[in-house]
Amino acid sequence: MTAPLSDVVDDPDSGGGQGAATAELTRDEPAQETPIEPGPLAEVDKEQRGDWTREAVVYQIYPRSFADANGDGIGDLAGAIPRLAAIAELGVDAIWLSPFYPSPQADGGYDVADYRDVDPIFGTVDDFDELLRTAHELGLRVIIDLVPNHSSDAHPWFPAAVAGGPGSPERARYIFRDGKGATGDEPPNNWPSVFGGSAWTRTTDADGIPGQWYLHFFDSRQPDFNWENPQVRAEFLDVLKFWLDRGVDGFRVDVANSLIKAAGLPDTPDPAHDAGAMGAVTGADPADQLPVSDRKARAVSSPMFDQDGVHEIYRSWRALLNTYSPPRLLVAEAWVQPPARLARYVRPDEMHQAFNFDFLQTPWHAGRARQIITETKAANDAVGAPTTWVLSNHDVVRHASRLGLPGLLGRPSGIGPRDQQPDAVLGLARARALTLTMLALPGSAYLYQGEELGLPEHTMLPDHSREDPSFFRTRGVELGRDGCRVPLPWEADKPGLGFSPTGQTWLPQPESFAGLARDRQHGVPDSTLEMYRAALRLRREYEVADSSLTWLESANDDILAFRNGFLMVLSNMGSEPTELPEGGVVLASGDMPDAGMLPPNTTAWIV
Ligand code: TEU
Ligand code: CA
After folding, report:
1. How many other CB atoms are found less than 10 A from the CB of residue 17?
2. What is the Å distance from ligand 2's center to 499 Cα?
3. Ligand 1 lined by 470 (C-beta under 6 Å)
4. Share of the chain above pLDDT 90, in %
5. Which of 62, 135, 147 is nearest to 93 (CA)?
6. Which ligand number lies closest to the CA of residue 71?
7. How far is the CA of 376 from the centre of ligand 1 (A)?
8. Which of 12, 65, 459, 464 is the most exposed place for a label (fewest CB within 10 A)?
9. Which tens digits make up the pLDDT trace of 56-105?
10. What angle do CA 105, 109, 114 make, to 5 degrees?
11. Does any ligand 1 atom lie closer than 6 A to the CB of residue 147?
């Protein structure tokens, strides 16, 4: 059989001078390479160089929904500890814990009242230390979530700011302003909250008379800090040190693009856009179809996000991290467009990684996927940073459901009982296929708890179960993120599917979860769980993380095809089977009934 693919040599200097030259496909024979076993010294080098900060596969634990020990239906650290072995066995390198700090839980813990403690619903600092020790014994590094843009309104600094009154040093730690209009009853500017409504809430003075307004990019119970204030900067350096000294391996930095606001807080030219600047790409906006380098480039001019002043903050954090050995990691959560702007967060003296949310929003379309991978990788390459691939997290519709929706959708802001329901079978097939594509790409990758089970979004949650503040602030226009935060199924036959000893779960689990419980998939050859385990093992074996990517040309536009080191990867994003090139298929995301043919909605790894 003739291989239907040929290498594209992108570099004009190496391609014989005829532009994008093609070469006949020749197969790498990994067996002919003499693998050099890394000696103990090489391992030490890798450790000291901090290679993990470029290559790790990180598993996100959302503690509320991971595992519950005390039976109250809310996950906790004591519940997570005995479950870590299952995560280590999956073959990941690290875990990232979403916030476990003391918090009124107005936004699932992203409203922090004390940055140096653990909320009683999650346990104690001793539980945290035990979790850290257990993870390290299992060979897992631990990244924790840092929420520097805002605190909870229950953080002691906030009531002090309200009580301190206008012009007080306490108020200067947050962003208070007088309102507009004769009586100050209009917000200071037109900035929208990402969760709906205005980004400003008015306070009431001690005498009962309406007073100044304070800024909150998210819920009104999440006041934004004033990062121009040196006290705020000093406080966070100290918080970083607190957890570094306890032994954490890194930080995921929440809304890293929003700490600094444009001087003078001018009106934004496009409030509707800024309200969704980090929210849904629906595919309905023609701009969503533009190349990623153009799409939403206008967001750059927003006075709310991605101000140049944020970078000196991350430089100071990196300088602190650099005093620790082996290297600790900073990963930016920043919905920033275009890729070249995002890459500024991962310059050599700033963070190590930034989530590639353009990739997360890749539509099921080979040409677009290739373009997004190429453009985002090029932007990172330009600053010497790895690309940090991700398909799901606690803020987005799970990819097994997202990819089961029709059309060239980017990402909807929740799916509910009144919406068109995703095609579960198609969604899972495409999710498995796109996951295998992701895990074959060079760089680092993040997995969200439950995706290794192929969990779908809970799309039938009743409104009375919802907790996401974005649901309430938009009066239900946005359903919010509860559907991806449903407690995990561990054992199909136990109450609450093993999540909690009492069977209680803070959100109801959909019926489909039972068949997807971990114990139903463990050791079952074609299960999603075993596919993830195999992919993570082969990824290591074939040194996928630090190999180089070459696109392969196919006569069929619906095929995404590339080589990364030893691996050749083909993903069929069309509707007809396609011929496979020569070589052995070492892993496939779905059944391959006809020898030599790759069915639609399937990815294969070939050596
Ligand atoms: O998310 C920031 C962010 O951009 C999200 O608001 C996202 O776009 C939104 O959920 C879409 O509806 C971080 C956290 O990951 C998120 O859970 C928090 O709610 C938010 O910050 C505020 O801390
Ligand atoms: Ca609990």
Report:
1. 8
2. 10
3. yes
4. 83
5. 135
6. 2
7. 21
8. 464
9. 999 999 999 999 999 999 999 999 999 999 999 999 999 999 999 999 99
10. 100
11. yes
Which residue puts its alpha carbon closest to atom 23 of ligand 1? 110
The whole-angstrom separation of Cα 351 and Cα 393 is 20
pLDDT band at 583; cut points 50, 70, 90: confident
Residue whose C-alpha is closest to residue 81's, from 108, 101, 100, 56: 100
What's the average model confidence in pLDDT over 382-410?
92
**Among this protein's residues, is 185 annotated catalytic?**
no
DSSP label at 509? P
For residue 166, the one-letter residue type is P
Residue whose CB lies within 8 A of the most ligand 1 atoms, among 98, 155, 220, 255, for a mutation test: 255
Closest CA to 424 of 513, 531, 533: 513
Nearest-angstrom CA–CA distance, 417 and 402 = 15
Residues constituting the chain: 607
Question: Is residue 77 within 8 Å of 118, Cβ to Cβ?
Answer: yes
Q: Tokens for 240, please give them.
A: 């970083």
Within 8 A by CB and 6+ apart from 313, the residues are 227, 233, 259, 260
- Among 40, 245, 206, 44, smallest CA distance to 128 is for 245
Q: How far is the CA of 360 from the centre of ligand 1 (A)?
A: 15
**Residue from 324, 343, 325, 326 nearest 334 by CA:** 343
Residue 366, SS3? helix
Question: How far apart are alpha carbons 255 and 56 in whole angstroms?
Answer: 21
Rounded Cα gap, residues 592 and 590, in angstroms: 7
71: alpha, beta or left? (left if phi > 0; alpha if psi -120 to 50): left
Q: Which long-range contacts (CB under 8 A, 24 or more apart) does 160-167 make?
A: 161/214, 161/223, 162/203, 163/206, 165/205, 165/206, 166/211, 166/212
pLDDT band at 407 (very low <50, low <70, confident <90, very high): confident
Helix (H) or strand (E) segment spanning residue 214: strand 210-215
Q: Which of 290, 157, 287 is nearest to 232 (CA)?
A: 157
